[in-house]
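Lab notes, practical 5.
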Amino acid sequence: MTFLPKMPRALKIALPLALVAAATPMLAQMPEVPGKADKTRVVAGIYTADAGHSLVAWNVNHFGFNDYFGLFGDVTGTLEIDPANPAAAKVSVKIPVSNVLTASPGLTSHLLKPAADGKPADFFGAAPTDATFVSTDVVPAADGMSATINGNLTLNGVTKPVAIAATFAGAGNNPFTKASTLGFHGTAAIKRSDFNIKYGLPFVSDDVKLNITVAFEKK
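Output from the prediction step:
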């Protein structure tokens, strides 16, 4: 059996320090992340949702055992905002339900399964209309970094009021498009039965949690 010689203690300490020293100049040359949670970076105007980087995730409880997750992407829409008057902000977005995504191809197919035998579709149906959310008012929080966005969600042909708890995530210039950009995270909760999606109740929960992340670019 061959044994490797032990590394001297001084070398054990010196080697990591040398590696850090060698990396420091490279780290100093790396560009800053363009977006920061700094309200002074927000530019007033009308913004368009960056569909490639805007998502709405949802989760439901399955049989009381665990939660299952799904996703809507390609979110489009507009945001009108003035940092001097955040309560006057307006947002309108469209969510293509037909692009719903899950980790299970079978479940995704079931979500989009057409109506049959004179009965309504179990979930969204084969050609669902886009969901929309249009704000009615914005209530900024005292911290200046979050707000409640009240509005109307239209899903499956039904419109109901929904409140989104939104948090400012960051603002700056997109390094590729050079456009002023800002982003938000949000959470909301709905009951799917309110939108006539009742399949599997109560084994699959009526309560649906929404986790939202949207980036907007100023055009």
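Observations recorded by the TA: The chain has two helices and ten strands. The chain has one domain: 39-218.
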